[in-house]
Amino acid sequence: MDLFHKFGVNPIILKSKSYIKGRGAQQNVPNKFLQNIYETRDDFLEFCRIEGEEADKNKTQYIPIFPKTIVNKVNSPDVGMAYSMNPYQGCEHGCIYCYARNTHEFWGYSAGLDFERKILIKKDAPKLLEAQLRNKRWQARTIVLSGNTDCYQPAEKKFEITRACLKIFLKYRHPVGIITKNALVLRDLDVLKELAKDRLIAVNVSVTSLSEETRRILEPRTTTIKKRLETIRVLSENNIPVNAMLAPIIPGINSHEIMNLAKAVSDNGAKSFGFTVVRLNGAIGEVFTDWIRKTLPDKADKVLHQIEECHGGTLNDSRFGIRSRGEGKIATQIHDLMRLARHTYFKNKSFPPLNHELHEQFKDGQLKLF
């Protein structure tokens, strides 16, 4: 028995004493759009200690917002969707690598802890969606729920905005995609099954690792790996097509799991899979670097250098067509493994196209007879 296990210490996860449990980000990084910076000073922390007060309650806030539209056109050629909608901004899942963190700065918040603790709620989303689908100029194109933040994050259990939107899609027979890493999607199995009858639904389930230890530090408030694989299985058994998102692949953290990940999602019924190589754009580079030095200090330099090797020596590459794929030897190895995994476990599988032909007949909310 080695010394790590003798003394009950996990050799992989060596968190610092200041680690904030249940969160991904470990600080609020400055918002580049704001002139003033808020910081928690040591003298304030000492005052709280002496007075027996909590300096940070680490609570999640739900903040209602009222956008004028809900469906967004996606211009990026790397994303693979034409339109998206997000019932929530910010995400309590707390995935440390999440590219959506930067969008929280547009609302005046930090891409760090604020992104996980200040969740913006769009209660009018179903009404706005219905107006979009009834618009005479609108032609059916797949709209993806969660193009930015997870539509089945914990807030959905309370507000049920995603469920209400799915009922709108069903009413107007409009194709919809879902991206999630939460088993809460199974709550809406009744609506999903109705959509599936007319080939109007596709679900993308993210599976980043098969290790619970890795999941807990990368994605602290997400569904367990066991539950995620079960979600793929249940959806597939109900004829709801599932694409697994093995993303992002982070060199030195989950890159060694590629073949096992592909086999696991295939065995549970996924019809296809996609992947990206991690990139730490904008404020995410600082958030991730701070996190890994506190969470995996012994591996931090190695992981950061390998990510940099995939992006020309930096943590981020903004070039379309390359930024999510990476370049160099490590990225090439990842792509080679993905090709092998696809050939080995998905050789006779294909993802079915969605039906865009019904919506025009149901544009008024009921079938047109003439």
From TrEMBL:
InterPro entries found in the cross-reference section: Elp3/MiaA/NifB-like_rSAM, MJ0683-like, rSAM, rSAM_sf
Keywords: Iron, Iron-sulfur, Metal-binding
Any one Gene Ontology molecular-function term assigned to this protein's record: catalytic activity
Parts of the chain that traverse the membrane: none
Gene3D superfamilies according to UniProt: 3.80.30.30
Domain called Radical SAM core: residue spans: 77-323
Superkingdom of this protein's organism: Bacteria
CDD domains referenced in this protein's UniProt entry, alphabetically: Radical_SAM
Pfam families tied to this protein: Radical_SAM
PANTHER family: SLR0285 PROTEIN
Name this protein carries in UniProt: Radical SAM core domain-containing protein
Species this protein is from: Zobellia galactanivorans (strain DSM 12802 / CCUG 47099 / CIP 106680 / NCIMB 13871 / Dsij)
